[in-house]
Amino acid sequence: MTDILVIGSGPAGYTAAIYGSRAGRSVKLIAGGQPGGQLTITSLVENYPGFADPVSGPELTDQMRRQCEKVGTEIIYDTIKSVDFSRRPFVCTGESGAFYESRTVVIATGANAKWLGVPGEEKYRGTGVSACATCDGFFFRNKTVAVIGGGNSAVEEAIYLTNFAEKVILIHRRDQLRAEKIMRDRLSENPKIEIMWNKRVAEISGDGGKVTELLLADVEDGSETVLRIDGVFVAVGHRPATSVFEGVIEIDENGYIVTKGVCTSTEGVFAAGDVCDPRYRQAIVSAAQGCMAAMDADKFLSANL
Q1: Predicted model pTM
Q2: Are the C-beta atoms of 39 and 59 separated by less than 8 Å?
Q3: Fewer CB within 10 Å: N-end or C-end of the chain?
Q4: Is 252 a catalytic residue?
């Protein structure tokens, strides 16, 4: 039995564990299949407060993990495969076969960017291939970059990147964008943005150290085009890691946990970070929500013990 069970690591999970432990609660953190979350595949982080010099994603999450352990959090390297929130104490079952009983739960399982699955994408991830313009746009000052996608996220990324890049090429596999009209209007008014219609990325190539070009295939006639670029931003959506909670707590049509603040539809169960945040998807926001979830869990425990 533990007071607070944190499911998932990364900024949201680690921060929830730190605040829960410092409140004097017993805390277990189930690290999941990718301890550290999406930051572990981020080469450099320059926008996290407290680090004057760039810090690597793995180093930042390792600092968080060590801080968790220092304040008394028990970190368990397991992945939750099923949950029972029908009564308290809550029971979560790990892939290891272990059962975890807890008076409260903080869900911080995050979300993963949807990738294209084309040759070269994984090889150059972090060295020219990104899924976050806010995180990595700064590295492409006066460069030419491509954004892949056609929804609001892709258009927002393209517009944002014009703050840094000399030219932004939006590549979409259809002949019209899915984005809202106001977003389409802003896009068309920006002189730095060019749109390539009816194209899909067939391959991402580079010089071994960084991205240098895209091979594009026309979806109508199959003809191929080589596009010289310095970076690729994939903006085809995110997939929150919520499958284990389906039918247990309220989840929206896109798979995100529905919250009021950080409270889920089940009393005593809280959610923080990208698992419930389709908008910001930033480490600092996830950390803030992790803090909120732990403080609310502590308050819930005080009122219900």
Answers
A1: 0.79
A2: no
A3: C
A4: no
